[in-house]
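Take a minute with the sequence and fold tokens given here and flag any structure token that looks odd. Thanks in advance.
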Amino acid sequence: MMVSNFLDEYRPLIEQSLSDACDFENPAGGAMKCPDKLREAIRYALLAPGKRLRPSLVLMSAQACGGTIANAMPGAIAVEMIHAYSLIHDDLPAMDDDDLRRGRPTTHIQFGEATAILAGDALQAEAFAHLYRCVGDRIQAAHMIGELAQAAGASGLVGGQEDDLAAETVSIEDFASPRAAREHVESIHRRKTGALFVASVRLGAISAGVGNEIIDALGRYAEAFGLAFQITDDVLDYTATDEQLGKRTQKDVGRGKLTFPELMAAEANARDEQGNLDVSVGIEKARQHAAAMIQQAHDALGVLSSLEISGASAGQLHTMADYILERTT
């Protein structure tokens, strides 16, 4: 089955659940009320058109472990809330200063910077509140809340974002070697991008009630998946258009950030006739590196087969990994 087919299968369930989760009506009445403008900004960011890769991975992981979509959906919604909050803050003028996201004005352009910040703050809190409200087993809820908090926190997504900002002030020459520079950038993206992919598959597995061996194997799958995703993202930043990606291209290069095509060209010592790094060689080397990561992802899934619990969605996880190498948007 094509990736688009099973993403389309999950998407209506995810979209409805996301919409329900950011209604914010207080059934008890009283003073607790979400302001209309804040609700509108939250819904604008959370319900923006997208592939829903992270929530889909939660559902696929759960089904691969013998679980159900119903039990996994709170984790899917929570991880997408964290993702949406991170994009709102990532786009702010003090961060990456983007004015376009998923083909639309970014949240701070649409609603103002202050409301955008508050919408991100609210989504972060609501992600954990959603797990608390919607996961019936208290021990499982605590496990899922802790898992997501760790992925989103100072040593995960936020720490990766901080190091990503700092990376604007360094060059390849500041490291002992081009390889050391590449490994530093990989460490950034394993947190900034990869941490939520890892949380996604682990949340799905936790919702299915499986043991740590399986949860950890799925985590290794997602670590490799996430790094391949970011490498491909950097390649697309050179090869795709603004319209294809729904955001400005080559902004990282313009801000002086190290990208995988540049790093891989330096590691291969590939230069053009003018002595500049040959990014075309770097792009091909980056694609090869992404392919190696995807092979690691496939290898990690072998634990599911050996434990004889893989369901129909184990094949979907394999297909999702291959999709990363083929994506053009």
